[in-house]
Amino acid sequence: MRTMSSGRLATLALLLLGLLFTLPAPAQEDDGLLPVTEAYRLSADVSTPGLLKLHWEIAPDYYLYRGRMKFKPADGVTLGEPTFPDGEKHHDEYLGDVEIYHHAIDASVPYTLPPGATRLRLGVQFQGCHEVDPKICYPPHTEQLDLPLPAVAATGNGSLGTALQQLGATRGGPGSDAPLPAEQAFRLEAVAQDRQHLLLRWTMPPGYYLYRDQTRLRLRDGGDLALAPQWPAGTRKDDPHFGSVIVYFDELDLPVTVTGDLGGRTRLALEASFQGCQDGGLCYPMMTRALEVDLGGSPATGTPTTTAPEAPPASATPGPLQTRLWLALLFALGGGLVLNLMPCVLPVLSIKAVGLLESGESPARARAHALAYTAGVLLSFVALGLGILALRSAGHALGWGTQLQQPLLVGVLALVMLAVGLSMSGLVQFGASLGNTGAGLATRGGMAGDFFTGVLAVVVASPCTAPFMGTALAYAFAAPALHALAVFVALGLGLALPFLLVGFVPALARRLPRPGRWMETLKQLLAFPMYLSAAWLAWVLANQRGADAVGLLLVAAVFLALALWWFERSRGRPGLVRAPVLLALLATVAPLYALAQLPPPLRAAQAETGTVPYSPEKLAELRAAGTPVFVDMTADWCVTCKANEHTVLDTAAFRALLERTGAVYMKGDWTDVNPTIAAFLEQYHSPGVPLYVVFPRGGGEGRKLPTVLTGSLVEQALTEAAR
Q1: Which segments within 113-215 are labelled E, that is strand?
Q2: Are residue 351 and residue 275 in the same domain, yes or no?
Q3: pLDDT confidence tier of residue 555, bands split at 50, 70 and 90
Q4: Of 186, 228, 629, 708, whose Cβ has the fewest other Cβ atoms within 10 Å?
Q5: Is pTM beyond 0.85 here?
Q6: What is the distance between the alpha carbons of residues 416 and 394, in angstroms, rounded to a whole number?
Q7: In what order do the strands lie in the sheet with 40-45?
Q8: Do residues 703 and 233 lie in contact, with contact meaning Cβ atoms separated by under 8 Å?
Q9: pLDDT tens digits, residue range 409-433?
């Protein structure tokens, strides 16, 4: 017999559920269930021209599906892309992985109407479930909305009808200062400056303006691609509809960065929704224009415009390449030097400290140690730079530390830290570079150990961003290939510089303590920072892939310990006796493979107390309301982020500062891959996290703060933003 596919089974189950839920309402009431209109109370607001705002009040123990919401416009009504907040992750028995809402939800839908329309008519369909006994799901429910519109919004995009004639009459007769059709009042065109950078231009006659915070850009069939606009400074205006806002008169040139893998695309389907007004006159409803942008540079226009904009001069789009190469190299050298003091690098430096103490007995050995370690650091930075350049040229969004967004790498790095710690504790010996004070080990083993210590230092340095590094890395990620590689080499040179100086300056080497038996105790003591690093990486893994990932990592750690134990016991014995070492190592790989296949955990998207989860829509809403905002882009694997949180952001003083200034603390989590946060980082030319941006109350551009925070610095920035 043929078996029925899972897709058909799911469809059949939904049909059966639909038949079940068509029972009369009294049967539901007998079970204690609310009628659908009481379980989900829908209200609508059309006070904002061109934008329908919807609000659902959801009864306790009920939830709504995000993916089951649909909108069916009446004849002549055109709806834009609806905007929903992020929902809670939920695994549904029939629908699979979905997002749901509890308590309440606000959504918005842009719309346009035919000329002379005075009402907005559409159907709103939604579906939800009761999540405690009796657990049932309602069939899809549709409510028909018939909403009267404010006079200013009851006009279409073509002929403006009676309302415009009345407006013209109040200005001295028909035709005097009468508003233009929307296509003439707001001309939109776009051109690709290169494959990753677009330029959008709005052209308006004198006396017309465009709202910044009412402008939305999206890609049709964009996949993982994201758009990051770089808004220029506009004009502050006290608007009767939206309050204090930023607007643009005459002309707006908007650079837009495309982040993500473009692959073999030659064109982009862009959709722009926006709204504007005639100064002192009519405000137009929300408009949506579709553009096809040729990535080869041919212009695209929103109907009916035909003129392509000229590419602006380089100075019109400020970015990281305004930094000169010599200055970027200086910042990179300083950043690499300071990186030695950051907590992420200190565990590995403990290994190097033992090697330096060993080398105190011979200047030649000191130089050899320093050169081998420096070679490992420099080659690792060059390899990292080449990898970033290759992925960037392919259109991938990549930043400093993003390799730790990969759970497999986090797991492997945790095992490496464990193995190094076991070696420093004396349970297994890998070579002279790990602190073996015996004289019988070969020099080659010691140099190889120093080299790979340098490699490990670069790997574990990636979660940290030191002062000066941000500017240098931002330059490297945008610069030509040779300049970028020079910056990475300078970073490596700064990281290795202290050990080079000790190796080649005899006066410094003479200040090192003399080798002795005490070094074995020191080496064993320094193993504990390695164990702490492994524990920290396990915590990062738990946040990325849940408890199952930590369980698999612990199983891999047990097999690794078994392999190292047998390796040490079988020294000097025939090869067959050492075969179990290979079997144990293979057993270590199996849970790591399973770990790499784990999906992100299904968990509710809950904000920390006192914070708001980052989303571009919420940020625009807060800025439109005149609220100062402190945006914090962070990640669990970012040690600098955690240090800033401990010393500044997770303190009573910071919470009191937020209350005093009326600012909102908005937080974005980049622990896992997130194109929305990557677009924000790209917008502010940040190579990675942490990124802190303070947006002022009165509008204007956000102020980017240094990567290492102090309480006084944050207080000054928020106090100025609240004025």
Answers
A1: 119-126, 128-130, 136-137, 141-148, 187-194, 197-203, 208-211
A2: no
A3: very high
A4: 708
A5: no
A6: 31
A7: 40-45, 51-58, 104-112, 78-79
A8: no
A9: 788 888 888 887 887 787 876 543 3
N residues, the chain = 723
Both 387 and 474 in one domain: the answer is yes
Enclosing domain of residue 112:
6-153
Instruction: Tell me the CA distances in angstroms from 127 to 18, 35, 121, 136, 380, one per residue in order.
Output: 11, 13, 20, 11, 53
Q: Please check whether residue 721 is in contact with residue 703, taking contact to mean a CB–CB distance below 8 angstroms.
A: yes
Say if residue 128 is in the same domain as residue 42.
yes
Q: Which helix (H) or strand (E) holds 721?
A: helix 711-721
Left if phi > 0, otherwise alpha if psi is -120 to 50, otherwise beta: which for 267?
beta
- Any idea what the CATH number is for the domain that residue 656 is in? 3.40.30.10
- Count up the domains in the chain and report the number: 4
Are residues 145 and 21 both part of a single domain?
A: yes
Q: Torsions phi, psi of 230, nearest 5?
A: -115, 90
Residue 338 identity (one-letter amino acid): V
Kindly report the number of other CB atoms within 10 A of residue 315's CB atom: 7
| SS3 of 276-307 | EEECCCCECCCEEEEEEEECCCCCEECCCCCC
Check pLDDT > 50 for residue 587.
yes
My answer on whether 327 and 435 are in the same domain is: yes
Is the separation of the CB atoms in 563 and 428 below 8 Å? Answer: no
Q: Are residues 681 and 652 located together in one domain of the fold?
A: yes
Residue 694, strand partner residues: 630, 703
